[in-house]
From TrEMBL, chains A, B, C, D:
Protein name: 5-dehydro-4-deoxyglucarate dehydratase
GO molecular-function terms, A-Z: 2-dehydro-3-deoxy-phosphogluconate aldolase activity; 4-hydroxy-tetrahydrodipicolinate synthase activity; 5-dehydro-4-deoxyglucarate dehydratase activity
Gene3D superfamilies in alphabetical order: Aldolase class I (3.20.20.70)
Keyword Lyase: yes
Taxonomic lineage from the root: Archaea, Methanobacteriati, Methanobacteriota, Stenosarchaea group, Halobacteria
EC number: 4.2.1.41
InterPro entries found in the cross-reference section: Aldolase_TIM, DapA-like
Active site, renumbered: Y141 (proton donor/acceptor), K165 (schiff-base intermediate with substrate)
Pfam families named in the record: DHDPS (PF00701)
Keyword terms: Lyase, Plasmid
Top-level taxon of the source organism: Archaea
């Protein structure tokens, strides 16, 4: 798929898919994963990001990461774009990118940097080396301070970079970054449905979704409303999905860490909606019962609203 | 070395050593590294943490990490304690720990968690699995919110855990954590000289140093003053070292990211003091000239003070 | 003016006016102030908020505050709405509100709370008492954490509350607050032009402006574009004004405090555009020369663009 | 009392006293206040700060503020130092200072600045004008970013400034500030018992207390242990008081605002200990029952420990 086409493929909802594990969480259930992804494709999903945070990237081995990406390639049709997440230093990311390419991925999303200390010029060189080392399209993932406006403006000029996932809750900074960056990239709102309208009005042409793993039609409907500039409809759909997103941001029980519910809510929703969710790996834990009940309520509300 | 002895070994200054690279930064210069470490040992350093942030952990390959740890084992005498840093998910950390043990390390320091989302119980299980999988002493590294007071109190009870490196600038939280944690661990102030007095008065029995890579005698002198409760002398030494630490916290030029100077200052200091510092790997870059000059001034001031 | 009409008056750009001082900053220049306000009225401004932060509220005496509000009433025509800012405890705010009413103001904006400690229920009672004590319409000003979503939802139900100025840069929270609040209030984006599009798409029907003090036509044009849902035009106008807003957010020279340039930029712009700006009172200081030059450049750019 | 003597008076525990109100909170109960203060004086308290945050400064009228300060002067013996809090712009603060002087106060504590925008030079001039306008000793109150290290270093040189209350939880910044400031001032740890050891080791010669309103002997004992460098005893006393301070930092019920319990815990403790606490004014509310029970438990624990 040529790079120009890739830019266009990112003008869509990007599904950051979850990975179903065996009951003891030891193994990835690739068949179940393939069923999930295939169902999403049938529901209209075209852009997939396996091995992101919702995919529990940091709890997977490299072999699993590659097999997860391959499962997406195989379980989807011709119109699908598959973007594998990869983190680490240059050799680590480029090795994964090479493997993703070998199994048929279209692009690699470089995860937000882990390095404890970094310099903007050093980060630029880091991304440049990755761009040079892969034939895949590169998606740059901004989350946290490391990728400054200047770095993103510079990276937008790289031919390999097809999209930038902007995942900080700062719509002013996003707006200014889009304006400052002269390169030809597709901008993704990386913080999902609750920011879908405000980031779209400032230049985002797509967004990433987690709840799309189990209510794909609703988030695709939201995307459609935004593209059509039907703002009242878009706001209604956004409000319909908001409570699920709010629960994901919570800590659950016996825990003070923010957003520990993030992936567990998605997986419980998948279980409810006929997808294969199941358990999460450590350092995450299952959703507490009362939060499960809240997710069930919200899922029922969405189902009853039948917006699509 | 039995665990009881390890606890005592951590009542010291912990040298988080830097790694010298070839001019093109492609290779680790193991001979130069061995010279550095051996010189530090001669200067009185006994506790070494290779493969930490000052050791550019995130820019090393696994093979390099293991060889760096081995170099420390070989370059130091019988009284040395060698603690290798390791990050990632359970299989990744335990594989590194096994390799560190094979080359003669005494302990493994589990780096602050990278996982984007975590739950306190899940983190506990994460550390428990690592503790179960290694015969090395385990050092827990708190930096950021993930390791809450409750998690640290629980981990302090694990037999494998010998020390906790507390690297948040919150002396009240540190004090309360030490008081809440009933287990037998050695508490390390993980944010170096500028916090050495205040954390010591609240229960820290050791601290980690970066500038110790090139002024080991001064930081060991500071440690001695604290142990002797000679607070005026300790404050003077702390103030002598403070400007170097302040420069490390800065961003350098053409950069907005905090502490990009952290490792470059250490390496430039090493070059000044007759150690092998040299270049840093990406995403870090060399120290700008004016910051080099400031480091030189401070180094000269310390040299002239000749406190030891 | 009946309350229903007031709600509608807030569907507009709210001009938070600056106060011109004598050269030694001792006296308010009421004639100059009246000229400024009258010019703004002629340029199309209809909604005025004297005695806000841009009006250096905290550096005025109570007598000056009242006279400043009165000047606005007298210098504007029948279509103007005048909203005086007031801060402090219940007796302090209600005394000012009474005085503002006596000089002809339409509403009182209660400044963000100063109290070091507060409880949500206590804040509700604080606002309720103010509402009970005045016949003016009340504008609630959210800036910082004190006015939570719950408090704002409750306050939206008060008959006296006609508008809520939301001045935190959190568009998700704004969106959720608007959705949760069932009362009949007009929502104002309280952080000006750079947030004008994103907050409008989430339910803001007006916004406050500082640069409107000297480029009123441009910000009114921006408002018009937003109302017309002409987003490309709106984005262009937003980008045209953005650099001025960015400079206002800066610290100037020999200073680390954020946004010290806020009012000085406005006053220098006023001097450039034929309004009476002049000096600022302590703890603010005049704009440094290089920032003055940057404001001049930006003003020239806007002038050349001649968007209206 | 000459300024040199004042400096010495601040080498002590500074009691930030609470103000008892009538049941409907309308009136200050001056007799009860005088009883409280007189009891504290008998218990050994010598340094009093009425009209601070614990004194609900922001909920008092100017007349009440002055009368509260006067009550302190009258209810205490010759050895007492009385420091009245004052906030606002220059005319507001100087008017209060003048009134405090007239009723016999020794010093005025200028509250942390309220001004929404400020410049460091402008702040300096603000404090200079206050210093020039009063014959009282001036206490500078740092809380939040406004009073930078540079501003404090400068203010330390003013003859009128006798003490600086440093109330940010940043012991490194405190240490550096003390080192940078060449002037002759007494440094107060402004965040009470939990920071008493760490700030003392870095140069604080006194600290402010809230719980001292009802357990004065314990906090004076802690101060004594610190002065004697009996660190184990000091740590024990600190740990004994810590839970009360932790509850003060909490939000109570039906509230998300931090530290809403701050003053209510103190007043409930006063009720328990035979002082006159009583209700708080809005925007604070009474302590919830379960928090009252926790305060009672802690008070009983302290009483049983009988450390003095």
């Amino acid at each position: 798929m040529p790079a120009t086409s890739l830019h266009d493929q990112f003008r869509d909802v990007a599904f950051t898919t979850a990975v179903p594990f065996s009951r003891d969480r030891t193994d990835v259930r690739y068949d179940a994963l393939a069923d999930n992804v295939s169902q999403l494709y049938e529901a209209g999903a075209r852009l997939f990001i396996p091995c992101g945070n919702t995919g529990e990237y940091y709890a997977l081995t490299d072999d699993e990461r590659i097999d997860v990406v391959e499962s997406h390639v195989e379980a989807t049709g011709d119109e699908a774009t598959i973007v594998g997440g990869a983190a680490g230093n240059v050799p680590e990311v480029t090795a994964l990118a090479e493997a993703y390419e070998a199994v048929g991925a279209d692009a690699v999303m470089v995860m937000h940097p882990d390095h404890t200390y970094a310099h903007e010029s050093g980060l630029l060189e880091y991304y440049d080396r990755i761009c040079d080392a892969t034939d895949l399209g590169v998606v740059v993932y901004k989350r946290g301070p490391e990728l400054t406006r200047d770095v993103l403006a510079e990276l937008s000029e790289r031919e390999a970079v097809v999209a930038i996932k902007f995942a900080d809750d700062d719509v002013k900074e996003f707006s200014q970054t889009v304006d400052d960056a002269d390169g030809d990239v597709t901008w993704l709102n990386g913080i999902a449905e609750r920011y879908a309208l405000s980031f779209a009005i400032e230049g985002a042409e797509g967004y990433t979704t987690g709840v799309g793993n189990f209510v794909p039609e609703v988030t695709l409907e939201l995307y459609d409303a935004i593209r059509a500039e039907e703002w009242d409809r878009a706001r209604d759909l956004q409000q319909l999905l908001r409570p699920l997103e709010d629960i994901r941001e919570e800590s659950g029980t016996e825990n003070d860490l923010a957003a520990a519910n993030n992936v567990p809510v998605v997986k419980h929703g998948m279980d409810l909606a006929g997808y294969e969710g199941g358990p999460v790996r450590r350092p995450l834990v299952e959703l507490p019962d009362d939060d499960k009940a809240r997710v069930e309520d919200q899922y029922a509300t969405i189902d009853a609203a039948d917006p699509y």
